[in-house]
Amino acid sequence: MNLKPIHHNHSVCLLTYHFVTVTKCRKHELIDPVTVDVFAESIKHYPLTIHIGEIMPDHVHFMIQAPATMSPAQIAKVIKGCSQASIKKILPTFSGWSKGYYISSVGGSSLEAVENYIKNQKS
């Protein structure tokens, strides 16, 4: 995976995160047509990029690039808030996300390990 740094006025950053969140009560409700593209479209007005993702019936995994100006908590709030509205348009019965989430920074050699982990979720 070839990631490009984000350039700001006086800084350059390359921050990548592994983000996971689950549906409320881990209900199995994330089905087609809910795709990674639905999430990417829902956050298009924010400086976030989903490089890779996998949608499971009760949770999602993403590798996300973000600027240094966004905290991990802000990233989670944007993804969960924006995607919930988009998913409810597709699946009106969607119960939403649980309160929690997992986010960790990823870089260097572990980048490929996380990428493979996310890609192999369904196998």
Overall pLDDT confidence: 93
Helix content: 25-40%
Arrangement of strands in the largest sheet: 4-5-3-6
Largest sheet: 4 strands, antiparallel
Helical stretch count?
3
**CA-based gyration radius:** 14 Å
Report what the structure shows.
The chain has 123 residues and is of the alpha+beta class. The chain has a single domain (10-119), classed as 2-Layer Sandwich (Alpha-Beta Plaits). Helices cover 29% and strands 26% of the residues. The two termini are 21 Å apart. The mean pLDDT is 93.
State the main characteristics.
two-stranded antiparallel ribbon, Alpha-Beta Plaits, single chain, 123 residues, alpha+beta, four-stranded antiparallel beta sheet
Summarize the structure.
This protein is α+β, with helices and mostly antiparallel strands. The chain has helices at 36-42, 72-90, 110-119; strands spanning 6-7, 12-13, 15-22, 49-55, 59-66, 102-106. 29% of the residues lie in helices and 26% in strands.
What is the fold's blueprint, element by element?
Elements: E1 6-7, E2 12-13, E3 15-22, H1 36-42, E4 49-55, E5 59-66, H2 72-90, E6 102-106, H3 110-119
Antiparallel strand pairs: 1-2, 3-5, 3-6, 4-5
